[in-house]
Write a structure and sequence with these properties.
The complex is a heterodimer of chains A (about 400) and B (about 350). In chain A, helix 7 crosses helix 10. In chain A, about 70% of the residues lie in helices and about 5% in strands. In chain A, helix 4 links the parallel strand 1 (about 60-65) and strand 2 (about 90-95). Chain A has 2 domains: about 55-145, D-Maltodextrin-Binding Protein, domain 2 (3-Layer(aba) Sandwich), CATH 3.40.190; about 165-385, no CATH class. Chain A has helices at about 5-20, 25-30, 35-55, 65-80, 105-110, 130-145, 165-195, 200-205, 210-215, 215-250, 265-290, 295-320, 325-335, 340-350, 355-380, 390-395, and strands at about 60-65, 90-95, 115-120, 125. Chain A starts with a helix and ends with a helix. Chain B is an alpha/beta fold. Chain B folds into 3 domains: about 5-85 and about 175-240, P-loop containing nucleotide triphosphate hydrolases (Rossmann fold, 3-Layer(aba) Sandwich), CATH 3.40.50; about 110-170, no CATH class; about 250-310. Residues about 1-20 and about 335-343 of chain B have low confidence and may be disordered. Classes of the chains: A alpha/beta (about 400), B alpha/beta (about 350).
């Protein structure tokens, strides 16, 4: 049997959850993150296509005699050894000794990325400054190779691959920490903002009076937060499933992150807990701020500073990742609103678990404090209540 | 003015119940409630004592402090000063399952179906949702609204939505029902139904407290009333006592038309002049009562053709207690009501 406050929280949470999840607008909410993904994919594909066209780069060769052919042979022998490969080479003209060639003019007339003239002893690369910086060494290498009599490929290099190095692991975990923070921030920003307008409906529909007479204001706040948290979990489950489908479909573009220090299962569990805390902390603040608004217009006005607040918190936590062990990191971990972000980053970089238990308890305490404060503020400012305790007691005793 | 627990019945200007009620017999007991909003005094030392099982009216013009008083009694807001006890508790919100409240500004979630809205309101008061749904459908049928059970609130007329909210207020069988201006917005037929409903609630033992600015409702329905004007309660007690604040009016028709018999009347039965062209004399019944009056009229050879003694109505009592201005304000629409309280 649920106790009265719990039953009140449950009643409010259930009503709000059903009202949101079973509304048509929720479908658009679920599809929301898809829009940037689709736009991103489309832009990426378009960009890739453009780049593919542009990358079909051809270097024209107009060298004396058969130097050009030898240069092409040298390219063919070495291209697989070069990181990033090499552009295609094509002989444009075989020059006689002493014959001049207008490389600049050729670049103006034809779709060539660069032109190599001169001899193998003294090749001349004509191109834009960027291409010159990019290919100068490569052309020299090919020319040197062409000057030797050897035609076989370079000797194979024996390799001994290690899974990772200490430096690599650290960098990878920092990247995982940052990725975790970004994901946490995006989800929180996407979802906590919804709470801003949450009490406007009750005020506009005048039902707040009935609610205030029936249940404690704290139960109303907690019920609404719980409902929106549950709604966000539905959203995350749907989006997570979509991500899983993309992975299964072999979307190799999706980056694989380094294993966090606490391991993936625990990291995901902590990520879930820290998301809940970040959401509840910001949500409780937003619910309070939004509760003071009377209209949707006022809520819209409030949403910008609220977003800025989130950004500040995020940047603070991000900054702390780059400064492990510093006072900045400590402050970010202790300051309630940035604590979930900072602690998730900590989980990626350190295997210690005790700090997480302390942090989650600390954050939960602040959720309750903010809800309590928010409910009091709501009663005093919106419901126009608030006793003067000492005078009241004196009066009652009279 | 100082009040003690023993003075509870002697409220306002010393009017009201003459006997001292046992606090255990009171469903609501409030003393010296004061509430200010941003420096504006909305309620100024209100005392109310509502017996268990009574139909009690809070009567006053718009802006007099009725709603603020009810909200304080229900714990929606806390008083700046004063003491309240509702169903034996100083924390009324802890007893939500025993209280039903219909606010003046009705409010329901527009997207909810009627029976769901009722079940939701009942769930807030502790009725399990499934049970609430079952009872909601049954009550909607009882009220002739069965056809609207599955319709969304936004699809209902204002009157129907109001009835839905009323059902939601009563579904959990509360011991105390607080209705803020329950008759406003209802047509005559539904006002009659609501009156019946309120009487039915009292008949099953529930205490009903409602606010109104319509004297007729208070006069017809209430055992006791609190008259509230400008944040103060100048009278609280039984309706009969309020009416008895004014002596009954005598209407007299005599053969003797020049009124010489008036000299024989007791001094407190002033009868100055007959209305121009009228056949009747009007004056207040003397303190000494009916028999001495009749004796005086006979001895004065008035030649009584007809005589009736009419008890003062609540409207007259209201004018006498709260003043002409407050009585005129009763008829004002809410928008024209004076700003609540005084600075």
């Amino acid at each position: 049997m649920l106790t009265n406050p719990m039953r009140a929280i449950w009643t409010i949470a259930r009503r709000d959850f059903v009202a949101v999840v079973f509304s048509k607008a929720f479908i658009f909410f679920l599809l929301g993150p898809l829009f940037p993904v689709v736009v991103g994919l489309a832009a990426g594909m378009l960009g890739a296509s453009v780049r593919q066209d542009l990358d079909r780069t051809l270097v024209g060769i107009a060298m004396v005699g058969h130097d050009g052919d030898r240069l092409i042979a040298a390219r063919a022998a070495m291209v697989d050894q070069l990181p990033g490969g090499a552009p295609e080479f094509a002989v444009i003209e075989r020059l006689r000794p002493g014959q001049s060639f207008d490389a600049r003019g050729l670049l103006q007339r034809r779709q060539l990325a660069a032109v190599v003239t001169g001899t193998l002893d003294a090749p001349v690369l004509t191109a834009t400054p960027g291409r010159i910086d990019q290919w100068r060494g490569m052309i020299g290498l090919f020319a040197a190779r062409a000057l030797t009599t050897r035609t076989e490929a370079p000797p194979p290099v024996r390799t001994d691959a290690v899974v990772t190095s200490a430096a690599n692991e650290h960098i990878g975990q920092v990247v995982t920490a940052q990725a975790g923070q970004v994901l946490l921030f995006l989800l929180t920003m996407l979802l906590a903002g919804m709470v801003l307008s949450n009490l406007v409906e009750e005020k506009a529909n005048k039902i707040i009076e009935v609610l205030a007479a029936s249940i404690p204001m704290e139960a109303l706040f907690l019920g609404k937060l719980a409902a929106m948290l549950a709604v966000s979990m539905v959203g995350i489950a749907v989006w997570g499933a979509g991500y899983g489908v993309m992975l299964l479909a072999g979307a190799r573009a999706i980056p694989l992150l380094a294993t966090p220090a606490v391991g993936w299962p625990l990291f995901l569990a902590l990520g879930f807990a820290y998301f809940a805390m970040a959401y509840l902390l910001l949500g409780a603040m937003f619910l309070t701020i939004g509760g003071l608004a009377n209209t949707v217009r006022e809520v819209q006005t409030l949403s910008m500073p609220a977003t800025m607040l989130q950004l500040i918190v995020f940047f603070m936590a991000s900054f702390a990742v780059a400064m492990p062990g510093s006072w900045v990191e400590r402050v970010a971990q202790v300051f309630p609103v940035s604590s979930p972000y900072a602690m998730l980053a900590h989980a990626a970089q350190s295997p210690d678990l005790l700090p997480h238990a302390l942090a989650l308890g600390w954050q939960a305490l602040w959720v309750l404090l903010i809800v309590r404060g928010g409910a009091l503020l709501f009663r005093r400012t919106v419901m126009k209540s608030g006793p003067a305790p000492q005078r009241k007691r004196r009066s009652a005793a009279a | 003015m100082e009040h003690s627990v023993g003075d509870l019945a002697v409220l306002g200007n010393g009017a009201g119940l003459r006997e001292t009620p046992d606090p255990r017999d009171l469903a609501i007991e409030a003393r010296g409630l004061v509430k200010r909003f941003d420096g504006t005094l909305a309620v100024d030392g209100v005392d109310i004592a509502v017996p268990h099982g009574a139909i009690y009216g809070v009567l006053g013009p718009n802006g007099a402090g009725k709603t603020t008083t009810l909200r304080m009694l229900l714990g929606i807001i806390d008083p700046d000063f004063g003491y309240r006890r509702v169903l034996g508790s100083e924390h009324p919100t802890d007893l939500a399952h025993r209280i039903g409240y219909l606010p003046e500004e009705r409010g329901l979630y527009p997207a909810m179906k009627a029976y769901e809205a009722i079940a939701f309101l009942a769930a807030l008061r502790g009725v399990p949702l499934a049970e609430g749904r079952r009872r909601a459908k049954a009550m909607l049928e009882d009220y002739g609204l069965g056809h609207a059970a599955d319709r969304q609130i936004r699809q209902l007329s204002k009157g129907m939505a109001q009835q839905v909210q009323l059902i939601g207020t009563l579904l959990h069988n509360p011991d105390l029902v607080v209705l803020d201006e329950p008759f406003s917005g209802l047509d005559a037929i539904n006002q009659g139904r609501l009156e019946q409903l309120i009487r039915g609630l009292a008949a099953r033992g529930a205490t009903v407290l409602f606010s109104t600015h319509v004297i007729a409702h208070a006069e017809r329905m209430c055992d006791s009333i609190a008259i509230i004007a400008a944040g103060k309660v100048p009278f609280a007690g039984p309706v009969d006592v309020a009416r008895d604040r004014l002596r009954p009016q005598v209407r007299l028709e005599t053969r003797e038309r020049d009124g010489r018999w008036r000299a024989a009347l007791p001094s407190d039965a002033r009868c100055d002049a007959k209305p121009q062209g009228g056949a009747f004399w009007y004056f207040t019944l003397p303190e000494s009562g009916t028999e001495p009056l009749l004796r005086a009229l006979i001895e004065g050879e008035a030649g009584i053709l007809s005589l009736s003694i009419e008890r003062a109505g609540l409207h007259d009592a209201f004018v006498a207690i709260a003043g002409e201005a407050a009585a005129r304000a009763l008829d004002q629409p809410a928008d024209d009501a004076p700003v609540k309280g005084r600075r």
